Amino acid sequence: MYIAMNRFKVAPGAEKDFEQVWITREVNLHKEPGFVSFHLLRGPTKDDHVLYSSHTVWRSFADFEAWTKSESFRKSHSGAGGSKKLYLGHPEFEGFEVVQEVGPDGTKSVLAAAE
Asked: CATH code at 65?
């Protein structure tokens, strides 16, 4: 399993507009092989920004990477430049390979052991 996250520092007062960009955009992720789930997360408020993160779960890094090279990826990011005025700086990407998962029943799974 692979988790891809982008962190956004949203300008104070622009939170509703930033959220609207995400809520109203066309969604094609569910059509992609290996896609598991997506979340838009609102984090803490600081003096100069509100922290947001997009959080996408993929079956594997290979599935995520294939999506980044797809037409669907290009379409979903084609209007991203128009919302730059809503956040400070560039989004910060963070990618994570899931090592362990604990299910709601307490079962543990090791998904990727260190080499």
From this structure: 3.30.70.100
Residue 2 burial by Cβ neighbours in a 10 Å radius (0-12, 13-18, 19+): buried
Q: What is the pLDDT of residues 26-69, one digit of tens each?
A: 888 999 999 999 999 999 999 999 999 999 999 999 999 999 99
Q: How many distinct structural domains can be found in the chain?
A: 1
Helix (H) or strand (E) holding 74: helix 71-77
| Separation between Cα atoms, residue 67 and residue 63, nearest integer Å | 6
Q: Which of 50, 35, 53 is nearest to 93 (CA)?
A: 53
Please check whether residue 115 lies inside any domain of the structure.
no
Distance CA 93, CA 54 (A): 9
The single-letter DSSP state of residue 112 is -
